[in-house]
Design a protein that fits this description.
Glutaredoxin, globular, Glutathione-S-Trfase_C_sf, 12 helices, alpha+beta, 8% strand, Glutathione S-transferase Yfyf (Class Pi), Chain A, domain 2, single chain
């Protein structure tokens, strides 16, 4: 049995089975990346619900694994050289899991680099920009009278959606084969309904994106992972 006692987070969220990957998450787009990847890769794991409240993500226990106080984070008891490893940042977790299993990175060396390219596109562009749109359009920032922040992030979201729309022309998946780039990207493309911002970004102008999101969420592993751990528990 693996010994995870060196990870203080396990004192607050104890492992029932320390021999499997421990996932600390919440079903936001970033959280969904990790749980969906674990499901797609058929890796045994145990999910711990870490809410977005300060009492969870800013607790000493969680900060011991992720000093950046963001979900998701994982502990793999069978890390490099058989030693346990803790990781945070959803993109890093996706790369780690894909490389651990040698899956979801495409079928060629070129696919692998293109997968990383589109993963970085999501991490550096789609996630931050769509997140800012959510803040200024649907959440606390919507009360700001100055329209410029909303206009900026609506326009940037439209630009990014147009990039994805073009890349998906003639493709089912963003690289060609299904990869971790899709697992990173599709959950974030699904946020406009939650933000009630589809009309604002002109969602109907991006039919390839719309079909892509539907195709992604129809995958059985995605259906299992999209609400793991559940938001309510």
């Amino acid at each position: 049995m693996a010994d995870l006692s060196s990870f203080p987070i396990t004192t607050r969220w104890p492992a029932k089975d320390p021999s499997v990957i421990q996932l600390y998450s919440f079903p936001t787009p970033n959280g969904q990346k990790a749980s969906i990847a674990l499901e797609e890769l058929s890796l045994p794991y145990e999910a711990h619900r870490v809410t977005l409240k300060d009492e969870d993500v800013k607790s000493d226990a969680f900060l011991s694994l992720n000093p950046n106080n963001k979900i998701p984070a994982i502990i793999d008891p069978d890390g490099p050289h058989g030693e346990p490893i803790g990781l945070f940042e959803s993109g890093a977790i996706l790369l780690y899991l894909a490389e651990k299993t040698n899956k979801l990175l495409g079928t060629t060396e070129a696919d692998r680099y293109h997968t990383m390219q589109w993963l970085m596109f999501q991490m550096g562009g789609v996630g931050p920009m769509f997140g800012q749109l959510g803040y200024f359009y649907a959440h606390g920032g919507k009360e700001i009278e100055d329209p410029r922040p909303r206009e900026r992030y609506i326009n940037e979201s439209r630009r990014l959606l147009n990039v994805v729309e073009g890349q998906l022309d003639g493709r089912d998946w963003i690289v060609g084969p299904y990869t971790i780039a899709d697992i990173a990207l599709a959950p974030w493309l699904n946020v406009f309904g939650f933000y009630e911002a589809k009309d604002a970004v002109g969602w109907d102008e991006f039919p390839n994106v719309e079909d892509y999101v539907e195709r992604f969420f129809n995958r059985p592993a995605v259906e299992r992972g999209r609400n793991t751990p559940p938001a309510e528990g």
